[in-house]
Amino acid sequence: MEHLEQHERMEMWEKIQKALVDEQIDQFRAEFLELHPYDQAKIFEEQDEDIRFLIYSYLSPEEMAEVIEQVDRDFVEEFIIEMVPAFAAKVMEHMSTDDAVDILNELDKNKVASFLTIMDKKSSEEIKELLHYEEKTAGSIMTTEFVVINTQMTVKEAMRHLRKEAPSAETIYYIYVVDSLKKLVGVISLRDLIIAEGDWLIQDVMSERVVSAPVGEDQEDIAQMMRDYDFLALPVVDFQDHLLGIITVDDIMDVMDEEASDDYSKLAGISEVERSGDTALSSAKKRLPWLVILLFLGMLTANVISRFEATLEQVAILAIFIPLIAGMAGNTGTQALAVAVRSISTGEMEKKGKVSVIWQEAKTGLITGLSCGVIITILIAIWKSNIFLGLLVGISIMATLLVATVSGAFVPLVMHRFNIDPAVASGPFITTLNDLISIFIYFGLATAFMSFLI
Amino acid sequence: MEHLEQHERMEMWEKIQKALVDEQIDQFRAEFLELHPYDQAKIFEEQDEDIRFLIYSYLSPEEMAEVIEQVDRDFVEEFIIEMVPAFAAKVMEHMSTDDAVDILNELDKNKVASFLTIMDKKSSEEIKELLHYEEKTAGSIMTTEFVVINTQMTVKEAMRHLRKEAPSAETIYYIYVVDSLKKLVGVISLRDLIIAEGDWLIQDVMSERVVSAPVGEDQEDIAQMMRDYDFLALPVVDFQDHLLGIITVDDIMDVMDEEASDDYSKLAGISEVERSGDTALSSAKKRLPWLVILLFLGMLTANVISRFEATLEQVAILAIFIPLIAGMAGNTGTQALAVAVRSISTGEMEKKGKVSVIWQEAKTGLITGLSCGVIITILIAIWKSNIFLGLLVGISIMATLLVATVSGAFVPLVMHRFNIDPAVASGPFITTLNDLISIFIYFGLATAFMSFLI
């Protein structure tokens, strides 16, 4: 069976819809619960409010929890709020702790407090603990539902323990081992556990080479670590090596996706990732900060050109190549920036050394600059029958591309040095900087060699 | 134990280096094999050629295979080629089939043929099969080392089979079930298998809701599916539902990373992702295509402005705001483009409907345009003491931002419709398009209202 395609979902939707309208609860449950929770969530999301309320009354909190875990994060808040609070609290009790925490983090503080009061004590305490951790750290994405065994158990005892814990644990494929002080001392994969003899001690079969993350570690670094080491789960510890929780690979895939969207948006000059639930006004709010900064930076550029007004009045034709030169500078800079940001975030920059990266960019800029300079000189010389104008633009392009390429790599390096996320030195900023540089070069050359142009 | 930090790696490196220089093979093996293969690979990559040759002679092909699997893909080709061919062939035999195929795909055809002849028959046949599949499809990233059981086995028999296969299988956490015709009919997780009673039949405990991917499916779609459904592995089938291989989550994380780099590079106008092994010349080659296209597009812009030369000669001051207006248009367009490309690739676009997306972008463009227009009008009116010039630029900015925002969303939609990857309609292209539009608006307005300016 393929995963549900749009048309299959429509068919299913109609069947389920019919069951709901006819208030055929058994029919609905039979069809709906047969689906993967992801598909349940997609169908649920498409329903109108009155149908959603029917669904809340047809499903148990436990069943609803599975649906809510898979619902798009942009809508989840709305659904939780519209439920009867006691039902919502029960739903969150049955969710993975980390997912419940994600939802509560989006709600206002009074709502959170009231939900925590209605919840059973165990869940609310687990959740309260996780709510403390800063966003985007290991603590905020870990779950506390994991299987832990101790060094003195036999393989057989461990397997028995595992069977009991399996239904509620987030993963059972890595089992973490703690000593009598509850410190993390080892790990054993289920693969190794099922191969081992039943009467061996865990401490003899476990691996002591257990990799863990401190609770305050950045989620992006954790994603990279899990990708590098091919881990399905990673234990999270405090500074005394006490096991606090685990991070599973499915959460890490969401982190990777989130971070990629984030870098992508920053390169495009959007301060925060836009979500599907955004209105035009909230989209505009996310885009305006950069646009207003650019407006002021653009005034700077205008100011620079206005200093060359005398040159412009003498040779008005110079103006027509302004967008070409500024545009080339901006784009080259963005290319170099993108490469630099990537190589900083993958750690390649460290390895190769900053000087050699800048040197390589300079060579790259020289090659692209020479190529484009020669082409444009020929084009303009033919078009305007003016070899000097062609040379002026060509040389400007060459110099501009060289400088813009180097600055595109240099600026994120400097930012990184001062602990500013280099992705923020995004396209728009580099573009404006390079606009300025390119215009200085172009009009500077034009003013110096004016006699050849008129 | 934390994963190896740079300084720990240095320490380890020194120890291992010393063992190598002293030709202490036992010492080297004791230190080196204690490490996670990822760390082994990082240390190995940093060695000079003569030391690498020592390592080849100190490790078995099986041990070397684990290292090579973790080596950066940019270097792996070089290492395989420098090994004695018989050793290299043995190393590839011991690698996961999918990883071996990745390497062979990078080598030239004669080399591949000669490696396949030296390899043992089973490995070379498995590899040959995988070499057929197109790059970036399910077939190219799947592995053929998986555990398969049939419907008629008991749970106990299945566990016994699993214990035997566990050491060589890529994952044992999902076990796929086939019928007597070798068709995929079910799946059971190891979690469910260890909970089940020993004498139950697999067909009674397996889930029949098995999600699979056709062998030609695009890797990006598979990544999305695995992320949505939280799968650790996904079976790959032919059009008759025969099980061909499986894709594991660790390979999917690499795919996600690759696709994110790819989108990021395209937004920056780089035709192909640059790698750490690239020389300045090869970097330049990847960046030049867009730059040359832009050069020609820039000539178009120059041509448009040159049509307004008469206006420019009368009011030279108009030129100073060209970069500001063109820059704002370009950046707004890139923002809208980035949002559109993301929402196309996540499927949100389909869900919301194209008309409503464009309409929302138009409203967003109106808000940002009005805000920026008012600000710039005031700034210029004060700076140049010329309210008409301020209004001209302000109104141009407003109109430009509106049009640029809509076109930034519209162009990728059109491209998507014609099955062109919308990520290719990247920043640089939209920027130039919007340069053109903005200059038309600006000079058009200036020419029409010339009487107010002079």
Query: Residue share in helices of chain A?
Result: 55-70%
Question: Largest protein interface?
Answer: A-B, 119 and 120 residues
Structural class of chain A: mainly alpha
Instruction: Tell me what portion of residues of chain A adopts beta-strand conformation.
Output: 5-15%
Integer count of domains of chain A? 3
Strand line-up of the largest beta sheet of chain A = 1-2-3
The largest sheet of chain A, given as strand count, sense and whether it forms a barrel, is: 3 strands, mixed
Task: Spell out the key features of this protein.
homodimer; 454 residues; mainly alpha; MgtE N-terminal fold; CBS-domain; Tetracycline Repressor, domain 2; 3 domains; 3-stranded mixed β-sheet
Structural features, described:
2 copies of one chain form a homodimer. By secondary structure, chain A is mostly helical. Chain A folds into 3 domains: 6-141, MgtE N-terminal fold (Alpha Horseshoe), CATH 1.25.60; 148-260, Roll (CBS-domain); 280-453, Tetracycline Repressor, domain 2, CATH 1.10.357. The first copy, chain A, contains 24 helices and 6 strands. In chain A, the strands form 2 sheets. A 3-stranded mixed β-sheet of chain A has the order 1-2-3. Chain A has a 3-stranded mixed β-sheet with strand order 4-5-6. The longest helix of chain A is centred in the C-terminal third of the chain and has 31 residues, at 387-417. At the A-B interface, helix 12, helix 13, helix 15, helix 16 and helix 17 of A face helix 12, helix 13, helix 15, helix 16 and helix 17 of B.
